[in-house]
């Protein structure tokens, strides 16, 4: 897949912020390498900020202002850009949606929940209702809206190549009503088949598998090193340390090897849809 074009600065506040950073850097005659020197950040990290894909840390904003002589502009405005990308997302997650859009490949492991990019609005509402019942209704709907916005990448012609792996219990033991779960699984089948993506299931009969403790999302890019997003009960983490990313890469490849073949996995999901539809009819 060819390298992605720089984003339109009018698309979002982070894109505008990044475009202005690039303009000021080039106006000063500095390369990315020269700009990053002394910042304790890599060239690729700075490049992703310029493309609106990563959040500008305050310490780096100070460094940039000093290098460019911009009188504190980037430090003053970095929180504005962060707020704009944070709407509906946890602070630790705020860089991920932009990274997903910029990625060439997305590989996800969902051991406990269906990954966000594959979720329906009603499934997510169910997760909030059962998993975070004290969430104010307006906050819950903001989160649902943000998640549905992320899923718009499925409609792009240049969307990332997607490969997902789920544990079978994710589709068998759902904390939502049968009708909601049937619609959710139908949605997964539609997305995977209509986009030429791949989905595999790790069966319940598998006694052991890699990455048993939590989800992982591996993102690769045309012109930047890969990163991994991991998530726990209350907080996630974006990892870019190469040796650690490499370990996740190896574990994910092992998951592929022990999971059911893609078509067998989709057949299993179809069977689960029929079961949930029957259960829903029994409830009526």
Explain what this protein looks like in three dimensions.
The protein is α/β, with parallel strands linked by helices. It folds into 2 domains: 13-86, lambda repressor-like DNA-binding domains (434 Repressor (Amino-terminal Domain)); 91-283, 2-Layer Sandwich (Endonuclease, Chain A). The chain has 12 helices and 6 strands. It has helices spanning 13-27, 32-36, 43-50, 58-68, 73-86, 96-102, 121-131, 137-150, 168-172, 178-195, 242-258, 262-283; strands at residues 105-110, 161-167, 198-202, 215-220, 227-231, 236-239. The protein has a 6-stranded mixed β-sheet with strand order 3-2-1-4-5-6, with helices on both faces. The radius of gyration is 21 Å and the shape is elongated. The N and C termini lie far apart (49 Å). The model has no long low-confidence stretch (mean pLDDT 88).
Short description:
The chain is built from twelve helices and six strands. It is of the alpha/beta class.
Q: Let me know the largest β-sheet.
A: 6 strands, mixed
- Given helix and strand content, the structural type is alpha/beta
Total strand segments: 6
Ends apart, CA distance between termini:
49 Å
How many domains in all?
2
Strand content: 5-15%
Query: Given this structure, which CATH class of the largest domain is correct?
Result: Alpha Beta
CATH 2nd-level architecture of the largest domain: 2-Layer Sandwich
Number of helices: 12
CATH topology of the largest domain, what is it called?
Answer: Endonuclease, Chain A
Helix % is: 40-55%
Q: Report the C-alpha radius of gyration, rounded.
A: 21 Å
Mean pLDDT: 88
Shape: elongated
């Amino acid at each position: 897949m060819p390298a992605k074009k720089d984003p339109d600065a009018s698309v979002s506040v982070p894109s505008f912020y990044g475009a202005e950073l690039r303009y000021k850097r080039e106006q000063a005659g500095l390369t990315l390498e020269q700009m990053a020197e002394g910042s304790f950040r890599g060239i690729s990290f700075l490049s992703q900020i310029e493309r609106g894909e990563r959040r500008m840390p305050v310490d780096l904003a100070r460094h940039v202002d000093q290098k460019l002589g911009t009188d504190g502009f980037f430090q003053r405005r970095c929180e504005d850009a962060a707020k704009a990308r944070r709407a509906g997302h946890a602070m630790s997650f705020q860089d991920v949606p932009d990274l997903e859009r910029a990625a060439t490949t997305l590989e996800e492991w969902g051991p406990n929940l269906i990954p966000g990019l594959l979720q329906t609005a009603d499934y997510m509402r169910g997760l909030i209702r059962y998993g975070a019942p004290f969430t104010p209704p307006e906050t819950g709907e903001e989160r649902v809206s943000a998640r549905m916005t992320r899923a718009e990448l499925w409609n792009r012609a240049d969307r990332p190549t997607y490969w997902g792996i789920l544990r079978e219990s994710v589709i068998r033991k759902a904390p939502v009503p049968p009708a909601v779960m049937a619609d959710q699984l139908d949605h997964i089948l539609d997305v995977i088949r209509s986009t030429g993506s791949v989905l595999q299931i790790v069966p319940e009969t598998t006694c052991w598998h890699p990455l048993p403790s939590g989800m992982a999302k591996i993102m690769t890019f045309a012109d930047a090193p890969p990163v991994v997003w991991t998530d726990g009960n209350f907080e996630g983490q974006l990892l870019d340390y190469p040796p650690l990313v490499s370990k996740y890469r190896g574990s994910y490849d092992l998951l592929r090897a022990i999971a059911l073949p893609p078509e067998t996995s989709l057949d299993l999901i179809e069977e689960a849809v029929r079961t949930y539809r029957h259960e829903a009819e029994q409830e009526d």
